[in-house]
Amino acid sequence: MALPTLSKADLIALSETDVTKPIPKESIFAALASPPFLYIPGTFNTRDLGLLPLTNSPNPQKGRKVGIRPGLIYRSGGFFPNGGFNDAAKTQLATQLGIKKIFDIRSVREHSHAPDPEIAGVQNFWIGGAEATAEREATVNLADFLEGKGERGYVKMYMDVLGGYKEVIGALLRSLLDAPKEPILFHCTAGRDRTGVVAGLLLSLAGVSEEDVEMDWMLSRIGTEMARAQLLGIAMKGAGVKSVEEPGFGNLVSLRRECWGAFVREVKRVYGGWEGYVRGELGMSEGEVERIGRVLRGE
């Protein structure tokens, strides 16, 4: 019997669950059976960005639809063979979803510990070695997350993503221009922060409202639930704390709208917005940015 799916309002409410508390099983199973989530064994937080429920269908100001074409852009956490990522999962990615390229938004250490799987017909893209600008491991200073709801820490962390991973982000965007009909997937380890930043960029270029982009980011609270305990342990180790009660740690591991909003304001202040980032930081022309938007929307 098929699981019941949740409405957009239900997903939003569930995404606000305190990360230190588990989401009830009946709720998480129903949520993960709801668009935009997809089930692929051996990974988690996997979604089709084109299935994100939007509040703004057509854009009356520009006379065109907004949003990403379903079946074109996928996001996820890492791939875990010991967690069930097997040949059937590879077939699902390559054959059922038709994914042609996987973009890895991880550090040198992360990639070396768990390289992306070799899948027939799928190209792996990871910018490493001497060309990597993200060679340094991400360091977390809990002092940045003490004030308010951690806005300052998130702004710093996410602006570092835009600067430190710009090579792979640029490669992803250029692949949309070179092969506009080929589905792609991008991921980091948890599929939450670095992946969330890139998803926000793509959705914004596709004309999605700030409210709906924020929702996509918040949905990682649901998508990471099945690995919540493991990810909390990783975060505690990275932050050098022994308790989730450590000052600032709750802000670090929580997803709160105020933090995403503060980051978006900083993108506007520094780059003039998402399109400004693509043009100024990635060196793409105004015409290329417009073409990427059309590709994303399926026009």
Automatic annotation (TrEMBL):
- Membrane-spanning residues where? none
Q: Which Pfam families match?
A: Y_phosphatase3
The family database entries (Gene3D superfamilies) matched by this protein are listed as: Protein tyrosine phosphatase superfamily
Q: Which GO terms describe its molecular function?
A: phosphoprotein phosphatase activity
Q: Which residues form the Tyrosine specific protein phosphatases domain?
A: 163-232
Q: Give the protein's recorded name.
A: Protein-tyrosine phosphatase-like protein
